[in-house]
Structures
1.
Amino acid sequence: MFRSLTIAALALGVAGTTALAQSNVSSQLKARQGLMRVNVINLGILGAMAKGEVDYNAEAAQAAADSLVGVSMIDQAVLWPEGSGEMDIDGTRAKMEIWDDPDGFMAAWEKYNTAVQAMQAAAGEGQAALGPALGQIGGTCQACHEAYQVPRN
Ligand code: HEC
């Protein structure tokens, strides 16, 4: 349900003709980039525990994992409006492939969502459970960035 709705919304965006002015999409741009950074913070908490740099704490690990899942539940269709790609506005590294291939983009989110849900299930189970779950999440971040994010140079 969620998936087909967001794909429909993205497809609708692709069908739109006029590119939006930068000011109209700046909230979405800041929001999606900020949410990525929230994820980085929570992954950092889990990563430090996985490496033993910080003592494992089941409650803190669970809170970080729950936050990853919470962010993953935000409807992506509203964060990636047509006219907010790298060819449209400054300050974004969103490739045009997001709008050329909305199904692929949403499929990449689905894989990411599955990985953060696995972390949510594992986070409270002890330090040893964190590493594998983190590896799974990291793979999905990387896969999406390779396809849909302009590399930093
Ligand atoms: C389904 C695709 C997708 C997934 C999954 C994904 N990202 Fe991203 N990410 C992007 C895109 C596209 C951008 C570029 C956004 C922009 O600049 O408008 C981005 C941008 C970023 C940025 C830069 C934010 C900024 O301030 O410019 C960071 C950091 C980041 N992602 C981290 C992550 C991490 C960590 C994960 C996994 C936990 C992740 N991303 C998962 C697609 C994804």
2.
Amino acid sequence: MTRPKASALVLALLPFLTASCEEGPARPKDSRPAATKAQQRLSREPIQPLPEPPREGAVERLGRKLFHEKRLSSDGSVACSTCHDLERGGDDGRRTSVGVQGRVGGVNAPTVYNASLNFAQFWDGRAATLEEQAKGPLTNPLEMNTKLPDVVKKLAADPEYAAAFREAFPDGVTEDNVARAIAAFERTLLSTQSPFDRWLQGDAGALGTAELTGYELFKSVGCIACHQGRNVGGNMFQRFGVLSDYFKDKGKLTEADYGRFNVTKNEADRFVFRVPSLRNVEHTAPYFHDGSAETLEQAVQVMAKYQLGRELGGTEVSSIVAFLRSLSGASVARAEKG
Ligand code: HEC
Ligand code: HEC
């Protein structure tokens, strides 16, 4: 599950390579009804559209309020939304994050959009669920630097919060309910209706030539071996630097660079990370756990070199970037431009 050899990568790719061969250009014109064609496309593609988000009820409404609540931090200066700005792609646009009193963290903030679909949370996958994840930043000294009993005390003393918790949970304000409410709100943050999903669902006009060329390249060069499924990532651990040594070239390393090794202490997990989702990636620069790539073009070239051992031409890179931009959800794109 950790360190794919080149041959393993090719094997993993075979189904996709053969799948795309079946679609020869000389195929007779398809006269099946549009709905059937869309279903067939869905069953054939290695990426699936996002599901519809759950409806927002009392728990989710409370979670939304907590997500934006600066009083959750020790000095009242930082909320979850400070580093996960929902108007800016769900992250902070910084190389690494800044928490209470300007304290600088060690890794780049991932987006919270679609995080509920990732099989594990954090770059090193150390939290299994969003509930477990939510307690991390609250108590992290570099982030919100507080203690969970203090959070519960603060919220229970506020009549508005006390009432909102009673409406959402039979047992009112507790540490677990704070995490449950925030996680429930995060599960509503699904960036549906991206041009790519509309195309998957049968809207042939949703993608242009550059996007379609980029998608074919994304599959044929091998990006799809790791970035796949509903979240175009987020469903496996992989080494950063499969075919070429990223960390040797980087030089000075930090503890965060050891990735999953920090969690398992297993040597085979050194430099292994959860493959990130590429949905909304145009809105979440800079890239990688260390924020080392400033543009999407750069990130694509780094991936081609270190994960696939190849160099892509300028037009190939811009086609892949065009495809990646088509993964932005309608609401996320609106928030960014608004
Ligand atoms: C100071 C900035 C900061 C604050 C405040 C903050 N986060 Fe984060 N968040 C980060 C960083 C940085 C990471 C990545 C940490 C890592 O992987 O080790 C992260 C990771 C996450 C992830 C995992 C996403 C993924 O794809 O793995 C979620 C979900 C998340 N944060 C939600 C929250 C919630 C909920 C709060 C409030 C309780 C919060 N964050 C507060 C910076 C912040
Ligand atoms: C062997 C698995 C693998 C392959 C193949 C692969 N990636 Fe990645 N990708 C990763 C991992 C792991 C990361 C996280 C690296 C890190 O920051 O530690 C990543 C990160 C990224 C990022 C940065 C995302 C972010 O939010 O910071 C982009 C963009 C990306 N990949 C695109 C691509 C493209 C395009 C290709 C094909 C040219 C590709 N990847 C091939 C595993 C892979």
3.
Amino acid sequence: MAAVVLLAWRLPAGADDRPHAAPLLQDARSNFQSITADVAAQQKNLGTPVVELGRKLFFDPRISADGVWSCMLCHQPSLYGTDAHPKSRGVFDKFLPRNAPTVLNSALQFRQHWDGGRESVEEQAKLAPLGGGFGNANDAQAVDRLKAVPGYADLFEAAFPDDKDPVTTTNWAAAIGAYEHTLLTPSRFDDFLDGKTDALTPSEQAGLRKFIDIGCVNCHDGRGLGGDSFEKFGAVSDYWNATHSDPIDLGRFNITKADADRYVFKVPPLRNVEKTAPYFHDGSVEKLPDAARIMAKVQLGKDLAPRDVDDIVSFLNSLTGEIPANFAQAPVLPSGQFHEKP
Ligand code: HEC
Ligand code: HEC
């Protein structure tokens, strides 16, 4: 009886009946931002010639050196924009050194790639035809492959009407980038941030509280819950002892050659993380509860109790959104010759 009276006394009239929901919302809003406005801003771009061209290019395998690999094969819609492999398999069946991050919400980040080696989704796309994913020797070869598909010349012209010779890798990158900017997946967490405090279950709210109080939020914050800073993986203890990573990736050091950047990686965003296993830059950890436990240990020097892991994972699951319609469904590609998939 006394407890009921106390609870009634604590809550202001008309407030949400979940204890602590209002202070939690306040703390959440000071660390994270909803993407509702970003989604609204992208509405006007859906279906435009440049975004639709980017969508076709993303799904088209005919620009890769073996005519088999497309962006989509490593960033699959049904796998929430990943390939579910620890490390990606690419052109001529060679493996890449790292795990494929999701392309969903990736445009919200301050840099691209695990080590921040690409400035933007546009730069990422511009260089992709030359890497181990597509295997072209140079830009000219990639452009030749584009021009060999009847239909693309018209689509590039419609998307870039001011250009004399629109079929270029710069425009390819601009179109794919524009498409990627539309691939946003709002979730119940955005509803919560927008003020609907009952959008999260009590366990998810408990997990959010712990995510903030334990210190995950020191690195995973902002719109993406990550994607806006670099941090050492293994701030407290060597990561490879926990992940059993082999080989050991030096991260950002590979780019800057600065000692301070050894084992430094971009803090990855956590939207849809429930669906993007396996985890970490080398896919060395299969299960999300293990990834959370390892993070607490090597980044914060803390051992999470099983209950904390459950709550944090249930919060992380609330970050799962719906696969956007223009990603879920494959576009109609310009006609021409296709190779058989392996
Ligand atoms: C062979 C598989 C493969 C193909 C093909 C491929 N990717 Fe990726 N993608 C990856 C891997 C692996 C990474 C991580 C690279 C790294 O961090 O070193 C990545 C990273 C990215 C990122 C950065 C995401 C982030 O959170 O940092 C974007 C964006 C992206 N790819 C888009 C594309 C686009 C667009 C294409 C087609 C032009 C493409 N990818 C083709 C495997 C692939
Ligand atoms: C000091 C900064 C820092 C803190 C604190 C931190 N993280 Fe991370 N987190 C990172 C970095 C950096 C990575 C990328 C590691 C890698 O794979 O190279 C990462 C990766 C992850 C991943 C894997 C994501 C993926 O797509 O593979 C998860 C899940 C995660 N963190 C959750 C958490 C949780 C839960 C906490 C709190 C217990 C936490 N993190 C605390 C920096 C941090």
4.
Amino acid sequence: LGLLLLMLASALAGDAERGEVLAGLAGCLACHTAEGGAPGAGGHAVKTSFGTFYGSNLTADAEHGLGAWSYEDFERALRRGRDPQGRAYYPAFPYTSFTRLVEEDVADLWAWVQQLPPSPEPSLPHEVKPAYRGPAALGLWRGLGFRPGEFRPDVRRSEAWNLGAYLVQGPGHCGECHTPRTSIGVPKRAHALEGSTSPRAPDISASAEGVGGWALADLVAFLELGMLPDGDFTGGEMSRVIDEGTSALSADERLAMALYLLDRDAP
Ligand code: HEC
Ligand code: HEC
């Protein structure tokens, strides 16, 4: 039994370097670092039509950060969107995508998060519009907008396609910006990746209006460099997704994402 426990423990001990790559793709520091602030110490404002939400302190500070958290607390937050007391988080924290993360990737992210230097910054209170305050509104939203559950590969598809689907739907959380939402912020699953007005992000579905007309090589190059087929460079929030996220992936991972995006008949 001792040996088995030891093996289990080492299987769960994450790889912080891989965690850093995943964190870049998942935008953890982008949302959890104030301008000029310590990395991951919180304070970045996420502005939505439902209010302004502040990414909290993720550093190892015991009082204001995650210093007192267990791995289980972290896993529950990312994949089930609940705090250690069981209270639901607002979906400005994209756990709607992170719920797809496989256990190994959660462990790698945990290893990465634990080595963020502790910073004693108190997390800022959210400014939620009155209609959306309180557990009832959040409960309603979760019922409609949150489908918890790890990514399930489609066995009829290739390994590369499934890797791409996982990276897009899970850590890449591409749909958080690119999928249109209803007036109460519920993602329109039947129109996944077809473009959104809040935030304003273009259609990147496999149709002609999206990236359907792009050559595979152009899409791969875009994910590495941010260059559009016409030679222009992408801007705004997308340049950060490229710089901190997709450019740090392996060439195989970018190819897999492009394959999936160009051949996507399911959300
Ligand atoms: C789009 C912005 C955004 C991204 C990307 C994001 N977060 Fe967050 N996160 C938030 C917001 C906003 C909250 C606060 C939610 C609430 O209080 O209801 C939050 C809350 C959390 C919490 C709960 C903290 C606490 O003290 O209860 C954890 C843990 C967390 N995020 C980890 C992460 C990790 C790890 C990543 C990357 C894998 C990540 N977040 C990516 C915005 C984001
Ligand atoms: C934080 C929001 C956000 C996230 C997350 C995001 N995008 Fe974007 N994306 C944008 C915005 C905004 C633009 C438009 C940028 C501009 O105006 O130049 C864009 C542009 C693009 C374009 C260029 C489309 C065109 O026709 O010009 C592609 C392709 C793209 N994104 C793919 C992705 C993929 C793949 C992911 C997931 C890895 C992703 N995006 C994640 C916001 C986001």
